[in-house]
Write a structure and sequence with these properties.
Length: 451
């Protein structure tokens, strides 16, 4: 097993720590690493945005655990080790008529990371989050014991681990259900909306009929155009919809050329003027229409641009993903968007989604309502008080932040947003009494047991 000191950060390049990184390639080696003592946190491909996979004393790089263990192509169930990425799973199952049951906006996420963050996607309002499709997983505890967890076997450990940000133990493998597909394409309807109210009405009118929905939102628009969006709703495309098109098979897609950002962009590259120009062009170009879109373009548009996080420069950025309950989402979103527009800070990415029932994990993020995800460049000392103002708006409207994206939340805000933390901490004290599993984020928000 290799060990090295490495400077690590989350995808936002906002917090950087030099960590002792261990990369075991077997379950036995992983047990040895845990037996050696010290604090540890697991890490996959580093796509959480903040400091949730950072820990100076010890980081377990689980990408060495990357074996496929079983695939039932008839039933649509797969089992693999935790270091297998979602992209690697797609390569195996998609040509055979299956796809991920849900997926975040990047396929460069490991199965272990998908469980730890209980990731969700464009179909949360219809299908739920990743944890809802888990049949079981194996977890390595601080004691060195390996246990199997499911809704009926060690159910408390099952619930605490889903969305638990790696703080209950190390996921070794998982078995989960897939979603059947006839083609590699999605029937997408684009609807341009003039303001936030029309955007929310579109979600309400279509959530019952479409499995997928998401909106690009112009976060710099003001006045009567506040919240103007391009809403995209979609269904799985059927074989008959591909007739007459040049496709080798319904489950194949043409090769896609990848681009890359070769270096950290200068800090002035993304600014209100450039983003406003982009927003104007994007909104004008996406008129209401319907078309077939391949799975990679539909789910992972940014994955085609390698190292896209470099566009924010060396100082990095934070992603702010706010969740608001349905009862207050309209007023909360207006307050957030008005405050962001006044700050005149450019968010290159701004995404609005509708979400459904909360997941099986104790610390799972979502509940019925709407999420707004934005990127803010690190513009210096004003960033923290600005984000604190957004936090207050969220708190006033009963909202919360996503731990997988968070980089700045304080302990008081966290405890208010996540009342489930008390139950989680009490249980963590039972399964990890010495606090072996912890991260920089967990210490920052108080999600570890007191020494």
């Amino acid at each position: 097993m290799s060990t090295a000191q490495r400077a690590l950060s989350g995808w936002g390049n906002f917090t950087v720590e030099t960590c002792a990184v261990h990369r075991p390639s077997s379950w036995g080696a992983l047990q040895e690493c845990v037996a050696a003592g010290g604090t540890l946190i697991s890490r996959g491909l580093g796509r959480s945005y903040g400091d949730s996979s950072l820990n100076e004393a010890g980081v377990i790089d689980q990408t060495g655990l990357s074996r496929f263990l079983d695939f039932d192509a008839d039933a649509g169930v797969i089992e693999c080790e935790s270091g297998v990425s979602l992209g690697e799973i797609i390569e195996v199952v998609q040509p055979r008529g299956w796809f991920l049951p849900t997926t975040p906006g990047t396929k460069f996420v490991t199965v272990g990371g998908a469980i730890a963050a209980d990731v969700h996607g464009k179909n949360h309002h219809a299908d739920g989050s990743f944890g809802d499709f888990l049949e079981h997983f194996h977890l390595l505890l601080a004691s060195g014991e390996i246990v199997r967890c499911s809704p009926t076997e060690n159910p408390d450990l099952f619930g605490a681990t889903i969305g638990g940000m790696g703080l209950t133990g190390l996921v070794l493998s998982a078995r989960f259900r897939l979603h059947p597909v006839q083609t590699a394409y999605y029937d997408v309807t684009f609807r341009r909306t003039k303001d936030l109210d029309e955007s929310l009405r579109t979600f309400a009118d279509t959530d019952g009929d479409y499995r997928y929905s998401v909106a690009w939102i112009d976060c710099l628009a003001k006045g009567r155009s506040l919240g103007r969006s391009v809403v995209m709703v979609a269904k799985d495309a059927q074989v008959e919809q591909l007739k007459g098109r040049r496709r080798a098979t319904p489950l194949s897609t043409p090769p896609k050329r990848k681009l890359a950002v070769p270096f950290q962009a200068p800090s002035y590259a993304l600014n209100p003027l450039t983003v406003r120009a982009f927003n104007t062009v994007y909104y004008a170009a996406n008129k209401s229409t319907q078309k077939l879109v391949d799975w990679d373009t539909f789910f992972y548009p940014l994955d085609s641009v390698l190292h896209w996080n470099r566009i924010y420069g060396r100082r990095g950025f934070v992603q702010y993903q706010a969740l608001l309950p349905k009862e207050t989402s309209r007023d909360g979103l207006v307050a957030l968007l008005e405050r962001i527009a006044r700050q005149n800070q450019a968010s290159f990415l701004a995404v609005l989604k509708s979400c459904g029932e909360r997941g099986r994990g104790w610390m799972s993020y979502l509940f019925p309502g709407h999420t707004l995800a934005l990127d803010f460049p690190n513009f210096g000392p004003e960033l923290m008080p600005f984000v604190a103002e957004l936090d207050k708006i969220l708190l006033d409207h009963g909202g919360r932040l996503y731990l997988a994206k968070d980089a700045m939340m304080d302990p008081v805000t966290f405890r208010t947003m996540y009342p489930e933390a008390e139950r989680f901490l009490a249980y963590k004290g039972e399964v990890d009494p010495e606090g072996r599993f912890q991260s920089a984020q967990a210490r920052r928000v108080g999600l570890v047991n007191a020494a």
